[in-house]
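Box S1 | Example of a co-folding query
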Amino acid sequence: MAEVKKGYARPLDLKHGRVDMSHGGGGRAMVQLIADLFAKHLGNEFLAQGNDGAVLPPGHGRLVVSTDSHVVSPLFFPGGDIGGLSVHGTVNDVAVMGATPLYLSAGFILEEGFPLADLDRIVESMARAAREAGVKLVAGDTKVVEQGKGDGIFITTTGIGFLPDGIHLSGHLARPGDVLLVSGSVGDHGMAIMSKRENLSFDAPIVSDSACLNGLTAAMLASGAAIRVMRDPTRGGLAATINEIAHQSGVGIHLEEAAIPVKPEVEAACELLGLDPLNIANEGKLIAICAAEDAEKLLAAMRAHPLGQQAALIGKVVEDANAFVQMKTQFGGRRMVDWLGGEQLPRIC
Ligand code: MG
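Box S1 (continued) | Returned holo structure for magnesium ion
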């Protein structure tokens, strides 16, 4: 995304204009789109370098890089939109590694005919999310595909952060005796999307939890608790994430259903659609596995942060060569918690 001098042509019609093929053509129209829309919201000293790549200052620690494509449908949903989500998703993947996210790149694939007003709203939302997270967008790209060959807009973001010396979190590090914490209610994002798609309405509307978790992860690391693993349970929900960790570490995990926070409206929507909240995506929640003796310290640090007020201890790590995840149900029985085979909820993020 090169720096652009204004005055090439008439300003973009951000109210009624639409994306056309020339906006991806590398010529004057593209330069104008970048100047009048992208740089307006996202401009900073790195984008202003105006070269083929951004030169970034050296940082302290090891580099952490994560990338994610966003194809959510609908683009605007209760509690968020594809712009904010594309920042949150990638910032959170860097943050749960224990790293401090600093930079983002973004690739936009736009469909011919997409309203510029919607694009403006989406990019503004990205800028807001980036500011909240304290990250800067340092590189970007825009391509346009013909009408019918895309679905409005797809956004791919890559995040870069620095991991301080001495922090080592990994899905391989869960040990029998450790405990499992979750930062808040599960299933909010996926059910906000589903209820919008299915036109369901409840007394309390379901709102996505889409949010940047790097403030929460920083508070958790500062608590001094012996954290082994942090991960954000996005696609596939809590069930998929916990199964991944059980397999990576070669341990079993026992969950306590009664301890897992689920909002009543999410529970009701799940029942109506025949879904299990444990399989539903989250975009502003994390799980952590830590030494049992540090559980209280870590829970207190989480609950002191606005995004961790509902944090709960929901299970423990046990010895199990089969890496089974099991849950004690509210009725006192025990059931397996499996990851799903197919794609149950497409285009959720
Ligand atoms: Mg993740």
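The chain has two domains: 21-163, 179-336. DSSP finds eight helices and 13 strands in the chain.
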